[in-house]
Amino acid sequence: MPERRQVSGEAALASALLAEARERVDRLLDAWSERIQTIVPGRTGEALAYALNTPGKRVRAALVLAAYRSVGGISPAIAAVATAVETVHAYSLVHDDLPCMDDDALRRGRPTTHRAYDVPTATRVGFLLVPVAGLVLSQAARDLVLSEPSLGRMARELFEAGGIEGMVGGQWLDLEAEGRTLDLDGLIAVHRAKTGALIRAACVLGGMAAEAPPAALEALGHYGHEVGLAFQIADDVLDVIGTSAQLGKTAGRDAELAKSTYVSVLGVERAREEAATHAHRAVGHLEAAGLEVGALAALAGYIVSRES
Ligand code: GRG
């Protein structure tokens, strides 16, 4: 049946792209981890490498690669931009797990950085990873032979998404909302900022690295805006239906922290439907702009059907 073939074809495409992102970005993260330990020696350097060099799914990296190619980018050096985004993401995970935030012991199937080291070290590691991301991004721009103004625009995109109007602001709202019931609009605002902003930036950065025209960047931004929300809705669902072994982090933590989530507001089934709606809308933005949708559509499908 054509429809099923398309679904399994998309799944295979997403899986190949994620495998490629993991392979190429993990290699670069390895190299950066070694380099950082020559700049930051001792236990803090070791902890930095521990946090940076952990095996994630590399969804944000795959989005950078797919967005870049969707607007005609062809250089393998795009993996360096993907590495910069994963570095900001790695910082956010270290701080998210701290006792003053979500207070978690397990991440990516290993003890969280503050459990493997200690809280002051993990706190420093998180902060240090922000300038490391800057270094990684500027090296990426050199590898891609981008101009200084292009690097400036990309740095602004990445660090605004990671900042007070994006990820940090969203985390702040999320922490403030613990134990309170958010309505759907409040929840969407938290999810879009805490998780969606960096995912949106990954898509826009892929386009910027290919020096795509403004209309294409706008479409990639709209796509990222929708898949970013879909990603966090799927995360809410997995927190309820997944196991810690499957997720590599403590399952059921949202309920323990009395967080409002899509599942607490809508239930599992409606949350899944909402995620699928946003993923569908995401692809619509690319189609409307006449961009190549194949790989990005496959990743949108993966984002809402993933099991970890
Ligand atoms: C100073 C208030 C303040 C905040 C600091 C900690 C922080 C910044 C932001 C938290 C952002 C965050 C961790 C959002 C959750 C995003 C999320 C769903 C992470 C899990 O992503 P996956 O599933 O993980 O892609 P892997 O391990 O596969 O990379």
Could you characterize what this model shows?
It is a single chain. With 308 residues, the protein is mainly alpha-helical. The protein has a single domain, classed as Farnesyl Diphosphate Synthase, CATH 1.10.600.10. The chain contains 15 helices and two strands. It has helices spanning 2-39, 42-52, 59-70, 78-96, 113-116, 119-143, 148-161, 167-176, 184-209, 214-241, 244-247, 253-256, 262-266, 268-288, 294-305; strands at residues 106-107, 110-111. A two-stranded antiparallel ribbon has the order 1-2. A hairpin with a 2-residue loop joins β1 (106-107) and β2 (110-111). α3 packs antiparallel against α15. Mean pLDDT is 96; it is low at 1-5. Geranylgeranyl diphosphate binds at residues 56-57, 59, 89, 92-93, 95-96, 101, 108, 167-168, 171-172, 194-195, 232, 235. Geranylgeranyl diphosphate binds next to α4, α8, α9 and α10.
Strand content: under 5%
Computed Rg: 18 Å
Total individual domains? 1
Classified in CATH, the superfamily is Farnesyl Diphosphate Synthase
Which CATH architecture would you pick? Orthogonal Bundle
Q: Can you write the helix and strand succession as a string?
A: HHHHEEHHHHHHHHHHH
How many beta-strand segments?
2
Poorly predicted runs? 1-5
Sequence of strands across the biggest β-sheet:
1-2
Look at the structure and give the mean pLDDT. 96
The oligomerization state is single chain
The level-1 CATH class: Mainly Alpha
The general outline is globular
Residues in helices, as a percent range: over 70%
Task: Give the cofactors and ligands.
Answer: geranylgeranyl diphosphate
